[in-house]
Amino acid sequence: MPGEISTELGLLVWTVILCIAQMLVAAATTQLQVGLPALAGNRDNMPELTGLAGRATRAHRNMLENLALFAAVVLVAHATGHLNSMTAVGAQLFFWARLAYAIIYLAGIPWLRTGTWAVSMVGLILIVLQLV
Prior knowledge:
Layout: H1 7-34, H2 36-40, H3 51-79, H4 85-107, H5 110-129
Helix pairs in contact: 1-3, 1-4, 3-4, 4-5
């Protein structure tokens, strides 16, 4: 039916929205730490970000790295007609784990953060397995 979007593509859109939200949190917390003039400048001599600003920035960078992989496998699965219940489960695992990861990283909980990252990788692997 025209206008319908697959679970996987829908979760890709929500993952992009999550990435944008993480970018805004990283920018806001960085601005609170270093000030607007430093943030708006060339950033040649930016101090090392610590605390919440550092965690928010690292979480956003990690999302960017993982978003590229997620987008690639979802788009290939969609384009080649390999979407199925397993790719849907993989996309759901990826998205919800990434949402939890962002919250847990901001809260500064290291081992739980690593566990949620691993769950998101399981989601990616489930999608990749449908393509090979």
